Amino acid sequence: MADTSKRGFASMDEDKQREIASLGGQAAHEKGTAHEFTSEEAKEAGRKGGETVSQDREHMSEIGREGGKNSHKGAKDE
């Protein structure tokens, strides 16, 4: 089987990926085919994403731990 680990878009540097994706987005807007979300569509997408991520209990637990650490950083100085 051929080694494909250094091939394709996914293997590129993140900054290079963003640059290429940005060019595609700009071209779509210039062409008039880009989708622009309404506030209602954005609200619905955010709700769905929140529901999905909150189902991962381990991930949510990690978020809570990090938030707790950050909220207590200056507490000992008082």
List keywords for this structure.
single chain, 78 residues, mainly alpha, Stress-induced_KGG_rpt, Stress/Virulence-Domain
The proportion of residues forming helix, as a percent range, comes to 55-70%
The total count of helices amounts to 3
* Average of per-residue pLDDT values: 85
Largest sheet: none
Distance between the termini: 61 Å
Low-confidence stretches: none
InterPro entries: Stress-induced_KGG_rpt, Stress/Virulence-Domain
Pfam families: KGG
Protein name: Stress-induced protein
Could you walk me through the main structural features you see in this protein, from its secondary elements to its overall organization?
With 78 residues, the protein is an all-alpha fold. It has a domain at 37-72. The protein is built from three helices and no strands. It has helices at residues 14-31, 39-54, 57-71. The radius of gyration is 20 Å and the shape is extended. The mean pLDDT is 85.
